[in-house]
Amino acid sequence: MTLQIMTDHILPLASLPSHSPLGHALAQPLLLGLFLPIHNGGWTMSTLPRDTDWTFDYNAALTKQAEQLGFDLAFGPAHWLSKGGFGGETKYREQSLDAFIATCALAAITNRILLVSTIHILYGPWHPLHLAKFGATLDHIAKGRWGLNIVTGFRKDEWAMFGQQQIEHDTRYQIADEYVDILSKLWTHEQNLDYHSARWQLQQAFVTPKPQYGRPILVSATSSPAGIASAVRHSDLIFITSPTGARFEKAIGALPQLNASVKEQAAIVGRDVRTLINPMIICRETEREAQEVYRSILAKADQGAIDGFFHSHATGDSKSWRGHERDERTVGGNIQLIGTPEQIVDQLQQLKSAGCDGIQICFFDYEPELAYFGERVIPLLEQAGLRKPIAQPHAPTP
């Protein structure tokens, strides 16, 4: 018997306990997340010197630093690239840690921060029973702090690495809906699960231990109509992208309508979601200094990597990031915030007013810029009512 895909049983945000890790995070007026640079080059295709590094030790130190500063979320991206990465002098993103494995390790050395792994659920493919068991286990290790960022794979070259033909865009999201439906059943059902469909067969399947707060945190990053329709049915956090490019002045005018549309679609299916956006933040004591950093990055642009990046993405069918120009891609971030601490806070206030519930930050030179953000920007965010002070976490496990 083929079971109809139903996602209305997926626990909405309102039903998750307020004392859960996600519940604590959602008490913040503006969620703060860090996009971890677990691949070489981070988000910036430039040869301008910096210490940003893809290694686990560097990213572990960043995550503990972000937790100490009160960040709510650390996020690991996923890439599948051939030798040389996107190319250029830097061999951009040739070196990369697996987001799932890295997150597992980070769970053991942190106490409060939410940890989100990006997983291409259709490559291979991952069997939902495997991921349900792995996810429930990690949920217990992380004490409810683990989240799954569900992606379906938009680049043909990635699919080819797994010996697969790329599945049509909208069909991928239909399959993802079914996949998440199975995960949710395995995480919540107290009896064995029999499930039979054209793609998945499960006989007497059972997962224990059950996740501590009903299920792990679910995340999606999408911009297409099919992707958003899927995300609002099962995700808690949805990464949106500016449809007009990374320049703040243009993006801020388009975001209110986009955020409103996503939340209206969620309401129609009886769910409540939060939207996040990914800014590159370049913050210095003066606007002139910040702009000089921006220009210096562009002056050392890795043209070969940029060419490779654009070529690879052009072969895919993603609807995200389509409005981004070459210079915007070089510097990185879905939207770019450049200026003094006061200017950055004003821009973040505008993003909040535009309907963004949180930000997932990337920096050019992570460690010193994250420290500066904590010292100069976070206190101003608290003064502006965008952040509430948090109790400091216990000292992390050595």
UniProtKB/TrEMBL annotation:
The keyword Coiled coil does not apply. Keywords: Flavoprotein, FMN, Monooxygenase, Oxidoreductase. InterPro entries: Luciferase-like_dom, Luciferase-like_sf, SsuD_RutA_monooxygenase. It comes from the Bacteria. CDD domains: Alkanesulfonate_monoxygenase. GO terms for molecular function: monooxygenase activity; oxidoreductase activity, acting on paired donors, with incorporation or reduction of molecular oxygen. The keyword Cytoplasm does not apply. Pfam families: Bac_luciferase. PANTHER family: ALKANESULFONATE MONOOXYGENASE, ALKANESULFONATE MONOOXYGENASE-RELATED. This is Monooxygenase.
